[in-house]
């Protein structure tokens, strides 16, 4: 039973990574989207590799998301389930190149 759960989890991770690779190829591989793994509490030794949180940045438009695997999701009946969530964080102002000042207040 435990082996089945382990195999199922690894298959889910493999499928997710495969889909991410296919999407990356569809976007042309132009580095538009950047992904950064967020470590809980800054402890890189405890990466929780099977339940990551990832910060995703659209480098062209400035949109930001956080994707979390195995996040706790509250149900209407008060119970909880675990699932994957993608949370939109907002939009940054984007400059033309690194170091551009896009707005300055005095």
List keywords for this structure.
single chain, 106 residues, alpha+beta, 2 domains, four-stranded antiparallel beta sheet, 1 helix, 4 strands, 34% strand, elongated
Description:
With 106 residues, this protein is an alpha+beta fold. It has 2 domains: 1-29; 31-94, no CATH class. 0% of the residues are buried. The protein has one helix spanning 2-26, and strands at 33-38, 53-58, 63-74, 80-91. The longest helix has 25 residues, at 2-26. Strands 1-2-3-4 form a 4-stranded antiparallel beta sheet, with no helix packed on it. The model has no long low-confidence stretch (mean pLDDT 75). The N and C termini lie far apart (64 Å). It contains 1 helix and 4 strands, in the order H-E-E-E-E. 24% of the residues lie in helices and 34% in strands.
Write a brief structural summary:
The protein has 106 residues and is an alpha+beta fold. The chain has one helix at residues 2-26; strands at 33-38, 53-58, 63-74, 80-91.
Unreliable residue stretches: none
Mean pLDDT: 75
Span between termini: 64 Å
Total DSSP E strands: 4
What does the overall shape look like?
elongated
Percent of residues in helical segments?
10-25%
How are the strands of the largest sheet arranged? 1-2-3-4
Report on the biggest sheet: 4 strands, antiparallel
How much strand content do the residues show? 25-35%
Radius of gyration: 18 Å
Instruction: Indicate the structural class.
Output: alpha+beta
Please, how many domains? 2
Order of SSEs: HEEEE
Structure annotation, total helices = 1
Q: How is the topology of this model organized?
A:
Elements: H1 2-26, E1 33-38, E2 53-58, E3 63-74, E4 80-91
Antiparallel strand pairs: 1-2, 2-3, 3-4
């Amino acid at each position: 039973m435990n082996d089945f759960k382990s195999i199922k989890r690894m298959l889910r991770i493999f499928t997710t990574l495969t889909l991410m690779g296919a999407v990356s190829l569809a976007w042309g591989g132009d580095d538009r989207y950047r992904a950064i793994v967020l470590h809980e509490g800054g402890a890189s030794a405890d990466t929780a590799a099977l339940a990551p949180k990832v910060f995703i940045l659209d480098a062209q438009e400035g949109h930001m998301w956080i994707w979390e695997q195995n996040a706790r999701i509250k149900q209407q009946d008060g119970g909880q389930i675990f699932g994957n969530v993608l949370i939109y964080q907002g939009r940054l102002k984007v400059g033309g190149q690194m170091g551009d000042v896009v707005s300055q207040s005095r």
